[in-house]
Every structure is written in C-alpha cells, then in structure tokens.
Design a protein that fits this description.
Blueprint: H1 4-10, E1 20-23, H2 29-43, E2 47-50, E3 61-64, E4 74-75, E5 93-96, E6 99-102, H3 114-122, H4 145-148, H5 156-171, E7 183-189, H6 201-212, H7 219-226, H8 237-247, E8 251-255, H9 272-284, E9 287-289, H10 299-313, E10 319-320, H11 331-338, E11 343-344, E12 363-367, E13 372-378, E14 383-384, H12 385-391, H13 396-412, E15 416-422, H14 435-445
Parallel strand pairs: 1-2, 1-3, 3-4, 7-8, 7-15, 8-9, 10-11, 11-13, 14-15
Antiparallel strand pairs: 5-6, 12-13
Helix pairs in contact: 2-3, 2-5, 3-5, 6-7, 13-14
Length: about 450
C-alpha cells in the first residue's frame, strides 16, 4: 500500500475533450501555474494558454484581460497574476450565492477573478506577509483569511473550480469534466514510540528517581516496562496496525531521526527496537521522515536526519512532515528540495481543522520568493488529533462531528481526506481516554 492512494491523485489520464483556449495579453508563470492546477489537477480539461487573440476562434475559450470584447467568456484580472513578490494587498471576502469569493468584480462572465483567488490560496500568499505567529513561529489558522471569514472548512479552490466548470459547460457543452474519485489516507506521526524504553540509562534512572519522589511517572509501571514484564504504555502499534488492516485503509508513518531535545523526544536513531518499528511499518504501509523541531531552518541538520533515515530503511525518504508542523514559507519547501524530499505532508493548521490551502488533493507548490513552480508536491491534511483535543478542547463525540464534516466536504469534491494521528493519542491514557473510538469511527466514515 506504499503511498498508492497519493499516486492515484497525482497520476491520472486526462479525458478526451475539446481543448480550452485561455487568452491573456501576458502569460506569466503565476497564470501558467494556476491554470495547470485548475484544469489539469482538479478538472481534467485540456487547455492552451495564448497571447494571440487570433487563436481563440469559435471553440471553448476564456478571455483573461481588461480588453473590451463581445460574446466571449471573460474573467477580469485583479493584477495579482501579473505582479511579482508579495506586496499585493489582502483581498476582501464577499459572497456569491453563499460561496465565499476573493477579488470580486462585476464586469465579467463570473463575478470575481477566480484565477487570482485560486493562486492566493494555493501559494499561501498571506503567509509571506507579516503575521502574528504563535510561540513556535507558526502561522495560525485562526489568523488566516479563511479562518477569520468562516470558510476554513470549505475546500474553496475545488468549489471555485467546479463553479467555473459549470459556467463554462453552460456556454460550451462540448467540454468534458473529469469525475474525481474520493479517497482517504491515515498518517501517523511517531514522535515518541516509547514512554520508558530506549531512553538511555541515565534518563531512565532519573525518571525512576523522580517517580519514587512523587514528581515523575508511576515508578512501578516504569520498572515493569524497563524489565520487559509490561508493555510500554505508548506502544499502541499492534492495535493501530490491526485497525488499519481491518478497515483496508491506506496509511503512512512518519518517523523522527533527530537528536533529543526540549521538543524532540524520539529515541536515538541507532536504537535497535526503534529501528525495527521503522523498518516494519515502512514495509507494511510506507513511511517518511519527520524532521525534528531543531531542523527547521537548519539545512545541515535536515540532511543529517535524512541520511539517518536512509541508514535505517535502506532508501532515502521522498516524503516528509515537519515536526510540530513548523511550516515556513518558502524556506521549508526550499530545504525539502535541497535535501531530496519531493512530497510534503505538513500543509494544515495546528490550531484549526480544515483546508489550509483551500484544496483537498495533492498539488504542486509555487515558490513566491523564486516566482516559479517548485519540485515539491504538497499533500494537505484536514484534521489532526491534537488539534481536536488539545487546541479545541473537544470531547470524543464533538471530535467525531468535526471529522464527519470534513470527510463530507472532501467527499463532495472527490478529494483526498488526510488525517494525522499519534501512537500516544491511541493508548487510552494521559487524557486520551475514549479517542480510540474516535479513530475507529473515522476509519468507518472515511471509507470510499
């Protein structure tokens, strides 16, 4: 099952259809990128960009220009796709028949610059501009344009693309729109595979002393685990594996290989038991590297952790998710490329569930700092266990309701529903009592 669900969304056959011509006086890298995502990635419509008005003819066409024309399908540009850098002002949010829109205007065949709206969301334009980060420097969903305006749980890029397709088909019935198949993927971050095992003699003894003094973890449990007479309380891997198999779910595991620190609690990468877990689940489901907190902004540290992953698994990682979701535009993705990573799974908010980039499927990343499409494919996630319990303080029943809403929204657009879980949240302890039921309910609800 190694990553097969993602490949089904990235590699597809474009259906035989009449080619759509898109005229613009200047075909910029931003327009090329945006049209590619809308028509190749989402809709499956063959298209051609041109600066020659004579090529428009009488077939299906979009006129993306301020020029005055008659009897053509027109989208009026806001200027974002012909600009460079990231100083363009934040767009206002308005609504059209209940649909949130950006870059509104009433002098076109549709009431907003849909191309600019899509680009603004996908490029994460707002994250390049000054913002109020959390204590870890992260861009917060609560401060995002979508979060502040109540549409963070809507895959607006998909909705806009389908809206455009519907309007185009009304005028050009010869166009054929691809039907996208919904699917799901469970991902697991193994931040700390063991509560007591593989922590080193000094750290284990220190924890035992604190436990005996009444300031640490339960000493009896620690002793039984260290002596092998009791399973480690964080070892929920067997249960997770069984549930994934029973549900027939695709899954990916992300493993850290960095050094231990204040925010990095994984075992040393040379630990024998840890290595066995990594190799097992890399073989059974597929895996990626989980770069450490301290690797953010440190390319040498990232490359060291990538090489350690290769030492353990026998292959370099193509996939990665940054620990603590420390996603910084565009530095994280530039580092990914330099380290040989091609697929990122960090695109989502730590504090809010939903669609950070407004899209529910893998998509190519556009680097605003370099003004070009990068070599990174982004696989966004919609929900994380820690967001629901630790940031939103939801009980299991309320969490199930949020997950159901996100699955429904993803299913409606034929997208890929991606969730993040941790082995430590599925052990029925440390405040996670009842969350195995949430996991099982999600596995049932997310089935195609």
């Amino acid at each position: 099952m190694r990553g097969s669900v993602v490949s089904r969304f990235i590699k597809f056959v474009v259906m035989a259809t009449k080619k759509l011509k898109i005229y613009a006086p200047d075909v910029t890298p931003r327009l090329e990128y945006t049209a590619g995502v809308i028509f190749d990635t989402v809709l499956g419509i063959s298209f051609e960009l041109t600066t020659d008005r004579r090529k428009i003819g009488t077939g299906p066409a979009i006129f993306y220009s301020e020029e005055k024309v008659k009897d053509l399908f027109v989208i009026r540009p806001s200027g974002l796709l012909s600009a460079t850098g990231f100083t363009f002002p934040e767009p206002e949010v308005s609504f059209h028949d209940g649909m949130p829109v950006l870059f509104a205007g009433d002098d076109g065949s549709i009431p907003f610059d849909l191309f600019s709206a899509v680009f603004y969301m996908l490029s994460r334009y707002e994250e390049y501009r000054p913002f109020s980060p959390d204590a870890h420097g992260r861009f917060q969903g609560s401060g995002s344009l979508a979060g502040r305006n109540g549409f963070s749980r809507k895959p607006v890029v998909e909705i806009w693309a389908r809206y455009l397709a519907g309007e185009l088909v009304k005028r050009y019935p010869v166009l054929t729109i691809r039907h996208n198949e919904y699917n799901s993927l469970v991902t697991l971050d193994v931040d700390q595979p063991f509560a007591y095992r593989s922590r080193g003699f000094l750290r284990s003894m220190g924890g035992l002393v604190r436990g005996l003094a009444g300031t640490g973890a339960r000493p009896a449990e620690r002793i039984k685990t260290m002596t092998g007479s009791k399973d480690d309380p964080y070892d929920s891997f067997g249960w997770i594996e069984e549930q994934l198999r029973n549900a027939g779910s695709d899954a990916l595991f992300f493993f850290p290989t960095g050094d231990q620190g204040e925010y990095d609690h994984n075992p040393p990468y040379r630990d024998h038991d840890y290595g066995k877990i990594i190799r097992k689940y890399d073989t059974l489901f597929g895996s990626g590297v989980h770069p450490s907190y301290r690797s953010a902004g440190r390319i040498k540290t990232l490359k060291t952790e990538v090489e350690r992953y290769r030492t353990i698994t026998g292959h370099l990682p193509e996939k990665a998710r940054q620990h603590w979701l420390l996603l910084r535009m565009p530095e994280t993705y530039q580092a990914w490329e330099e380290a040989g990573i091609s697929h990122d799974y960090t695109m989502g908010f730590n504090d809010k569930p939903g669609f950070r980039a407004g899209i529910a499927r893998p998509f190519p990343f556009y680097d605003l700092a370099r003004e070009k499409r990068s070599g990174i494919t982004v696989i966004p996630f919609q929900v994380m266990d820690g967001t629901l319990r630790q940031y939103m303080n939801l009980d299991p029943d309320s969490a199930i309701g949020v997950i159901d809403e996100l699955i429904t929204a993803t299913r409606k657009v034929g997208g890929l529903f991606v969730s993040i879980w941790h082995n430590t949240s599925l052990n029925e302890g440390n405040g996670w009592e009842g969350w195995r039921r949430v996991f099982l309910e999600m596995l049932s609800m997310q089935k195609a």
